[in-house]
Known about the structure:
By secondary structure, the chain is an alpha+beta fold. It has a single domain, classed as Jelly Rolls. It contains 6 helices and 23 strands. A 10-stranded antiparallel beta sheet has the order 3-6-7-18-9-15-2-1-23-19. Strands 8-16-11-14-20 form a 5-stranded antiparallel beta sheet, with no helix packed on it. It has a two-stranded antiparallel ribbon with strand order 4-5. The longest helix has 13 residues, at about 225-240. The chain is globular and about 40 Å long.
Amino acid sequence: MHSNFSVISRLIPGAIVNFAWKEPLVVFYDNILTDQEINLIINKATPRFRKSMVAGKNGEPEEDKSRTSDTAWISSSEDKVLASVVQKVVSLTGFSIKNTESIGVNRYRSGQYFNPHYDFLEEQQLSGAPHFRGCQRAGTILIYLSDVEEGGETVFARDGFLDGYFLYDENNPDHLRVKPKRGRVLVWYDMHPYTEAIDLRTLHGGSPVIQGCAQSFKAFFLSGCSITHLESLKHLRSSLNKPLQDFDMLKRLAGMQKTRIARSPSEEDANFSGGQMNPSGDGSTTSPGRTPVRLELLLNQ
């Protein structure tokens, strides 16, 4: 089994893993990237920004009013430092770097948004675009490159959208809102681990930026081209099949000597939303009947 938690513990001191949702599995990581690495990505992307596109019915990119951001495309092959950043981030997921799509850096200015959508591709899109080679998007990784004063959250609401509008309910445990935080890495899986089917529960969107500018790095992991991807996905998600309150299981999964586990996020680190507002006032929430878990991974000493 590929233990992404062990990789984190070896490479990144003080990294924090936040299990936001179990089904579908949504995880975000803090303290992963350095300021130097983030600035490198931004500097590479800034001169290349163009109007964002979406995958059309035939799989080819096209403009759509549902997405109002700008996007720049960069490649890990153009810079050794950038390549090491991508490799480090991919190591969090259990996927192979060989089957990642091109990296998109997105910029959302005040008032810009990305309406509710899925990242996986429909059959017509897969067959119509040769560059996908019949491979489905099995997972998504999103890195927030900037803090945002207000708005810009990534929202998973399942049934919380109507005609493209966000109907996020902070008291609904089936709704999740992840706040942008510079250097935060958000990972979710677009395919079900057991049926290998697309997971309709991954409906998500980017809420409008109210104040500030949101920049993010996004990449997709492809399945169907390599069994390694799907097997890694199965192992990772099945390992989390027990309740998240099973702290002993989490410790075994982390595979390390020094692990701190908190039942609720601290005021400094709490940034995921899925229910009742946290009185800290930082925009975080805790869900009714759901115990947030923060697993702090420290280097073995």
